Amino acid sequence: MVVNYREIVDRIAFVVGWTGSVTPQLDWDMVERQLGFRFPGDYKEFMARFPSGNYRNAIQLYNPIQDTESFAQFTDHLEGKLWGIRMARDEEGCDIYPPFPEPGGVIPFARDAEGGTLFWLPRSPNPDEWSVEHQARGNPEEWTRTKRTMTEVMLELVTSRGERNILRWNVADERGFLPY
Question: What are phi and psi of 121, to 5 degrees?
Fold first, then answer.
């Protein structure tokens, strides 16, 4: 089945009222080489449309190709969350996913407004088959598991009219999108 990521991203943009675009200063090949992994296609399509920003006052995403500052913020978040996963596993003995670059290691890509994190779970070598998991702040063993892609999770969040989203928060009355 062929998924049209652009249609999903266009729907998200419509729902949050975003009519702008991004003129990337960095390219995906360089970013992927520096980070050591390939990004899912839906994420790349999303970042081709949206700058770094906040969605529904709930999810914060940094666009790693937008500019060097956004890439640095993405990298700082990635490294900090991977360090936290390592500490929770190694020092606290938590039974959680391994951190990237370990085999099957989770890769953080966004944070929530309460300090939780959205991760990709690399279920296969093909990043287009990765699903999204949410780890709540304060309890490293509290995860919300999905089989959804990043754009499916974001569409669910921005169209949510109650707590039926990955965060289990009611964000219906929150502003759609605030770019950085």
Answer: -105, 105
pLDDT tens, residue by residue, 19-62: 999 999 999 999 999 999 999 999 999 999 999 999 999 999 99
Q: Name the one residue in this structure whose structure tokens are 């039974």.
A: 95
The answer to whether 112 and 58 are in contact (CB under 8 A) is yes
Residue 122 — left, alpha, or beta (φ > 0 → left; ψ -120 to 50 → alpha)? beta
User: 129-162 burial by CB neighbour count: b if 16+ within 10 A, else e?
Assistant: ebbbbbbbeeebeebbebeebbbbbbbbbbebee
Residue closest to 74 by CA, chosen among 42, 107, 96, 115: 107
Query: Rounded to the nearest 5 degrees, what angle is found at the Cα of 46, between the Cα atoms of 44 and 52?
Result: 100
> Would you say the pTM of this structure is higher than 0.85?
yes
**How confident is the model at residue 137, as a pLDDT?**
86
- Cα–Cα distance between 11 and 176 in angstroms, integer? 12
Q: CA dihedral defined by 115, 120, 123, 129, rounded to 10 degrees? A: 150
Instruction: Answer for the pair 60, 54: CB distance below 8 angstroms, yes or no.
Output: yes
Element at 121 (helix H, strand E): strand 117-121
